[in-house]
Automatic annotation (TrEMBL), chains A, B:
Species: Pleurotus ostreatus (Oyster mushroom)
InterPro entries with a match to the protein in the record: DNA/RNA_endonuclease_AS (IPR018524), DNA/RNA_non-sp_Endonuclease_sf (IPR044929), Endo_G_ENPP1-like_dom (IPR001604), ENPP1-3/EXOG-like_nuc-like (IPR020821), His-Me_finger_sf (IPR044925), Non-specific_endonuclease (IPR040255)
Protein name: Endonuclease
Pfam families: Endonuclease_NS
Organism lineage: Eukaryota, Fungi, Dikarya, Basidiomycota, Agaricomycotina
Residues that hold Mg(2+) according to the record: 194
Amino acid sequence: MAGSALVHAAVFAAGALVGGGVAAAVASRKREFPHAAQNSQVSAIKSPIIEVGPGGNAQISTVASSGGVIAPPLRYGNPGPIADPLVRKAYVAAYDRRLRHPAWTAEHLTLASLGKSAVSPPPEGGELVDRQKSTFTEDASLPAAFRSKLSDYFRSGYDRGHMVPAADAKFSQEAMNETFLLSNIAPQVGDGFNRHYWAYLEDWCRRLTSSFADVYVFTVPLYLPQLHPDGKWRVTHEVIGSPPNVSVPTHFAKVVLTSRPASPSTPDILELSSGAFVLPNAVIPDGAPLESFIMDIGQVEKAAGLTFLSDELKAASKHICKTTKCEVIVRRFDDARKRPEMRRAISSPK
Amino acid sequence: MAGSALVHAAVFAAGALVGGGVAAAVASRKREFPHAAQNSQVSAIKSPIIEVGPGGNAQISTVASSGGVIAPPLRYGNPGPIADPLVRKAYVAAYDRRLRHPAWTAEHLTLASLGKSAVSPPPEGGELVDRQKSTFTEDASLPAAFRSKLSDYFRSGYDRGHMVPAADAKFSQEAMNETFLLSNIAPQVGDGFNRHYWAYLEDWCRRLTSSFADVYVFTVPLYLPQLHPDGKWRVTHEVIGSPPNVSVPTHFAKVVLTSRPASPSTPDILELSSGAFVLPNAVIPDGAPLESFIMDIGQVEKAAGLTFLSDELKAASKHICKTTKCEVIVRRFDDARKRPEMRRAISSPK
């Protein structure tokens, strides 16, 4: 039947622009679009997707639509979401289907979430949460065609870099395991970046919880243009995998917002701090000052096409480097690894 | 007040992941996220956005949330949608906020929509629809920070290339005007591409309506990697504007699906055809065969991170070049322009 390309009409199911859910909706055959469609943004475009029956036949239903905006240009197919929203135990994120890494991740860190609070609960089941129990895993919640795969990273020369660090999800093994889903991973330079300066920055973000009650962290892969001698700006980035699948960001940003009571007597009056750091996906010397990577949050937002904080919130917050010390602690994990007796004491970020 | 960075708590409003709408929702202060959040995709993540009051103060409300998923990591801000869905008279589209051009556009072409049917209505108001009455316009429905601007294209060396062609929206001046919104525009090489081979392809798509009852066209900017001598695949693309804002796609694709009754006696039994053409954003000789740009639809989907047609539909359709002639008609509009008496007779695509 498929070979004859004769399709007996079609039963349609609607796929919303966002998410993988399929809602029931059926298209009518009316060609009213050009004059009936709305000249405005809609929150979601529903559209029919053809369904071929068991015999290979499909029927165009004449039953009227049962809700949702059916845009006639999408009657046979809908390009679908650009990004998949992901809600995990330790983070929320959006996965970019084209670049095959997160568009952004967001976390809320506290002493309690890091298991450092006196009143924090012990890890689930009382067992020690251990990154050695976690393994990098392809994210089956994404369509196979758009998933990043273990084979894409294999022998790519890049580390599987966590956007949400495993160490931020120590409150349960399951939460930590979720940070090893490839939908939370982007290709990072290993030596001198993922295993060093980037890890120092992640550690600095965690240490903010000792100074601030609440720490919010956005992690954002970026593609920044460079000025060339001909006066033109160009973005150049590698794509790894065979066939090439996963894009390698030129930079990574951390955008942080912290809050704490302005004084112990007024716990509902908050002091807010914020800041953004943009690091090249490249070897960074241990001695580089963290402050040298400061970037205006609005500039990061423009580069990413995202909005992290409202203008009011940006204006209402001090720069994080004014309310705490912006200084990383250098930890040469790999040097420790070379000494066998240290291997279990300090595990390297991967 | 802003300077002191003391924020008196906060009244939150929720912004959905998709669309610009602000729904009423208020966050509680509970820090229950790590254990309460769902380990799954959600169709939309709602989050609070801080609202600073008239006096510059903001209050953290203790009123419980009134609906919607509030993800605690997004309590102070939400990165927002990656793409804006757009519904216009002649097309639907998604605008990419980072690249600042459409991620895709979709159209439904018929003899009637092109004003070529005997039974088609005359243009609205009876006046002639004329592209000279349309002007390129920044799309005010997009946030200012993510809009592509007229100044980005000015002296960029690139044409403002229509994704949905103006000539596909001749049924009303308003529909045509909408094709001139910069949210429907991407930077294209002018001579030899936008004004020539790409215009021939657009014309070929329109001419499909004389052979097929329904013609569906997706237009898709692409960023394709090239193999370098070092064995690595890299994407390199320009970014125009000052500061650099609008990315210049390396390629553009048209994905078409057509349907027509298999025979006049069985109007509900359809013959489907489909195909994809991928053209480099570069000078293409007039003599290049259209068939030399054929690409597998699934490959275009993988490169774009989008789904145009279900696997069943791909399997159920013949290749378009088997059901009609894949051959463009060469029209040297610019040669005509050089002769003043022809200027009004033939207007060049821009």
